[in-house]
Amino acid sequence: MCCRYPPLPIRTLLWLMIAIYPGASAWSQTPVFSGSWGAAGNGPGEFNDPHGIVVADSGIVYVADTRNHRIQKFAADGTFISQWGTLGAGDGQLDHPHGIALDGSGNVYVAETGNNRIQKFSSD
Questions:
Q1: 23 CA to centre of own chain
Q2: What predicted TM-score, i.e. pTM, was given to this entire model?
């Protein structure tokens, strides 16, 4: 058993979210599709099993492109900006990146399952 307390039923969790955060009731509305980008492949802007995604305050979108062993960087509208990473275990190389996060300075943290580590990159 992973937790000290038994899990709460979904209905109870939703009630708690609405009670704590009044705007949460808007979550019950149907989302409106507003766009997409990418396709299967290994070229710029293409993906092979994308897992992690994070959006910077500036609107820049970073995607952990897991089976292409890289991180891709996009403008808020989906325009490809850059990519980094190649398969490997050296500094700056990636092996199945899954999770991605940013800190307050814009540094990018990447969790790799293949190398069992976290790497830190500048936003450049």
A1: 24
A2: 0.75
Strand 108-112 relative to strand 70-74, pairing: unpaired
Sign of CA dihedral 23, 29, 30, 33: negative
Annotate 10-44 with b (16+ C-beta within 10 A) or e (fewer).
eeeeeeeeeeeeeeeeeeeeeeeeeeeeeeeeeee
- The model's pLDDT over 73-102, given as tens digits with 9 standing for 90+, comes to 999 999 999 999 999 999 999 999 999 999
CA distance readout (Å), 84 to 9, 20, 65, 69: 42, 40, 10, 9
